[in-house]
Design goal:
By secondary structure, the protein is of the alpha+beta class. It has two domains: 225 residues, P-loop containing nucleotide triphosphate hydrolases (Rossmann fold, 3-Layer(aba) Sandwich); 153 residues, Nucleic acid-binding proteins (OB fold (Dihydrolipoamide Acetyltransferase, E2P), Beta Barrel), CATH 2.40.50. 24% of the residues lie in helices and 30% in strands. It is built from ten helices and 20 strands. A hairpin with a 2-residue loop joins strand 12 and strand 13. Helix 2 packs parallel to helix 4. The protein starts with a strand and ends in a 12-residue tail after the last strand. Bound molecules: adenosine-5'-triphosphate (ATP) and magnesium ion (MG). The site of magnesium ion has 2 residues, from helix 1.
Length: 394
């Protein structure tokens, strides 16, 4: 087991691409840390630098306080599990799992003991003599993990290890993986671009964007207090509703109504350096059918047309156009630039509002509905920089 420290770590590829930019992060002994972010944000590169498969351009990587920048992968005692688990097809599960140990000339009885132990942890005991072709996707994935586990490494690095599995199996394996990791107590860095996986699996989550660390926090902290618009829109499903708002006459004027400034909003607005324009986030689960009793007691109410209604089983997703929103309402902060940005921050969702409503609601498609929300649930962001202004929303 080990503590991993990244201290201002950067990666500049030969063509000048800066894939990871000044990344500083401490991963505690036994912790399950998630790296999450859109495609190309530097997750794999960061992982490969920790493994020693990619040279570190700048900064320091320490394992248990010792600088290991120049230590070759085999001397770092770190096991990596990849997306395409790459098992040897002609070997049984047992042989696949023990391959590394046999190469390292580990004592036979010792190998047997380790494989047996790992197989028990992974629920693979009865499949050990099968070849990969006779195993399900999830079982193959577990064999690949077994191969890492028997090495008893200081840390596991996993790069989207579940992405080859179908949705149901992925959910199952996610739970399984969390159980195994906590049972083994091995420091783990887990890469995914799936925010649901990140939120459900990790002790802490590091959100990356274009090589830059946006925020590192527990899933709950990320949800309640996203540092900026990017984190707010990336974490949460369906994504947070974003709208433009202005402050006038001691009130916050939103497309969905006016909110008197209370202490929390006043504090938030004092951080804008005088600007009266802000961007406001309101999560779909914080909107309620105003005719029902499950909403906030002293909520702000407004009426909108339900354009599309999706019945999700336990709840509805109701989609509406924001009242009075001009067609070109754009919630991208002024500082955002470059391709991918639009998509990442708000996807011009400024015109649309999504509400997650109880399945008991009387909501109907193409009809009007009265929605309510608690102003205490509003997240405010600086319209210029996209930075969070409000304290975490609980
Ligand atoms: N060998 C390389 N030379 C130059 N640029 C590279 C190289 N490998 C990766 N990159 C670039 O570095 C950036 C980060 O790549 P990386 O593979 O780390 O992203 P990622 O977050 O793992 O993405 P994905 O979710 O698609 O796997 C990308 O812009 C990528 O094009
Ligand atoms: Mg990758």
């Amino acid at each position: 087991m080990a503590e991993l420290t990244l201290d201002g770590v950067s990666k500049r590829y030969e063509d000048g691409t800066v894939a990871v930019d000044d990344l500083s992060l401490e991963i505690g002994d036994g912790e399950l840390m998630i790296f999450v972010g859109p495609s190309g944000c530097g997750k794999t590169t960061a992982l490969r630098m920790i493994a020693g498969l990619e040279e570190i351009s700048d900064g320091e990587l320490r394992i248990d306080g010792e600088v290991v920048n120049d230590r070759p992968p085999k001397d770092r005692d770190i096991a990596m599990v990849f997306q395409n688990y790459a098992l040897y097809p002609h070997m049984t599960a047992r042989q696949n799992m023990s391959f590394g140990l046999r190469q390292a000339k580990v004592d036979k009885a010792e190998i047997e003991r380790k494989v047996k132990e790992a197989a028990e942890t992974l629920g693979l005991t009865e499949y050990l003599d099968r070849k990969p072709v006779h195993l399900s996707g999830g079982q193959r994935q577990r064999v690949a993990m077994g191969r890492a586990i028997v090495r008893d490494p200081k840390a596991f690095l996993m790069d989207e290890p579940l992405s080859n599995l179908d949705a149901k199996l992925r959910t199952e394996m996610r739970t399984e993986l969390a159980r195994i990791q906590s049972e083994l107590g091995t420091t783990t860095v887990y890469v995914t671009h799936d925010q649901i996986e990140a939120m459900t699996l990790g002790d802490r989550v590091a959100v990356l964007r274009k090589g830059l660390l946006q925020q590192v926090a527990t899933p709950r902290e990320l949800y309640e207090g996203p540092e900026n618009l990017f984190v707010a829109s990336f974490m949460g499903s369906p994504a947070i509703n974003l709208m433009k708002a202005t402050v006038e006459d001691e009130r916050l004027r939103l497309p969905v109504g006016e909110v008197p400034l209370d202490r929390r909003l006043r504090d938030a607005l004092s951080r804008t350096q005088g600007s009266t324009d802000v961007l406001v986030g309101l999560r779909p689960e914080h909107l309620f059918d105003a005719t029902r009793a499950d909403g906030p007691e002293r909520g702000v109410t407004f009426t909108c047309d339900v354009d599309v209604l999706e019945a999700m089983g336990a709840e509805y997703y109701a989609y509406s156009a924001l009242p009075d929103a001009p067609d070109d309402t754009d919630v991208t902060p002024a500082s955002a630039s470059g391709e991918g940005e639009q998509e990442a921050v708000g996807r011009r969702r400024g015109q649309q509002l999504i509400a997650r409503l109880s399945i008991d609601s009387e909501v109907r498609e193409h009809e009007q509905i009265e929605l309510s929300f608690d102003p205490g649930r509003l997240h405010l962001f600086d319209a210029e920089t996209g930075k969070r202004l409000t304290d975490p929303v609980r």
